[in-house]
């Protein structure tokens, strides 16, 4: 009897995640390819529902976005859309756009992480964020459209909604992807994420 057959998918996943967490394989293309093919085989073997086809979202140490089960390429976004995307990934409970003012400090922290190499002036970041949340303009909706376009280069059309910021105008907005598929390696972002999910 082959040992591999007796390991459940979830056990194998847990072992893999532990290995990946303790060793930085994120730049090893061979490992990423093997992982991708294992995930693909697993989804082919089971009833083919959306869950098996969904990729993890990995935010690396530098705050870069990867969907490693679809591609080894970074999913690039401009700083502001990326800040909004990470903010909603952290706030799985959903947030109304008009309430984002209450999270200005957090948005500012996230923006600083994603714009690290640019060393943007604090006042410019604040202006950018305030403009984003101004109720009279549609900047937040435009920003969510940019997020969608960036993700659409990688995510299958049938699943794109799960990765985007969705919700009804005037109501709460959120990203539908399951928390178990989100891996955050950046220490500061992980702290914010853990604070939100541990109370």
Protein topology:
Blueprint: H1 3-6, H2 9-22, H3 29-45, H4 50-53, E1 57-59, E2 65-66, E3 74-75, H5 79-90, E4 95-96, H6 104-114, H7 122-133, H8 139-152, H9 160-163, E5 165-167, E6 172-175, E7 182-184, H10 187-197
Parallel strand pairs: 1-7
Antiparallel strand pairs: 1-2, 2-3, 4-6, 5-6
Describe the structure.
This protein has helices at 3-6, 9-22, 29-45, 50-53, 79-90, 104-114, 122-133, 139-152, 160-163, 187-197; strands spanning 57-59, 65-66, 74-75, 95-96, 165-167, 172-175, 182-184. The chain has 199 residues and is of the alpha+beta class. The protein has two domains: 3-53, no CATH class; 76-178 and 190-197, no CATH class. It has a four-stranded mixed β-sheet with strand order 3-2-1-7. A hairpin with a 7-residue loop joins strand 2 (65-66) and strand 3 (74-75). Helix 5 (79-90) crosses helix 6 (104-114), helix 5 crosses helix 8 and helix 6 crosses helix 7 (122-133). The longest helix has 17 residues, at 29-45. It is globular, with a radius of gyration of 18 Å. The N and C termini lie far apart (45 Å). The model is unreliable at 46-52 (pLDDT under 50).
Short description:
By secondary structure, the protein is an alpha+beta fold. The protein has helices spanning 3-6, 9-22, 29-45, 50-53, 79-90, 104-114, 122-133, 139-152, 160-163, 187-197; strands at 57-59, 65-66, 74-75, 95-96, 165-167, 172-175, 182-184.
């Amino acid at each position: 009897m082959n040992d591999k057959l007796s390991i459940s998918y979830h056990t194998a996943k847990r072992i893999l995640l532990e290995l990946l967490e303790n060793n930085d394989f994120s730049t090893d293309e061979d490992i990423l390819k093997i992982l991708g093919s294992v995930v693909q085989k697993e989804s082919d073997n089971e009833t083919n529902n959306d869950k098996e086809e969904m990729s993890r979202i990995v935010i690396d140490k530098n705050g870069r976005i990867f969907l490693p089960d679809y591609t080894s390429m970074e999913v690039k976004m401009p700083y502001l859309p990326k800040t909004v995307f990470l903010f909603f990934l952290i706030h799985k409970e959903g947030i109304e756009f008009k309430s984002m003012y209450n999270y200005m400090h957090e948005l500012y922290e996230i923006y600083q992480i994603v714009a690290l190499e640019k060393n943007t002036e604090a006042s410019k970041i604040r202006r950018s964020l305030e403009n984003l949340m101004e109720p009279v303009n549609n900047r937040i909706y435009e920003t969510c459209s940019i997020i969608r376009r960036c993700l659409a280069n990688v995510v299958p059309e049938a699943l794109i909604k799960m990765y985007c910021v969705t919700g009804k105008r005037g109501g709460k907005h959120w990203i539908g992807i399951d928390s178990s598929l989100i891996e955050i390696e950046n220490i500061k972002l992980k702290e914010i994420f853990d604070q939100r999910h541990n109370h």
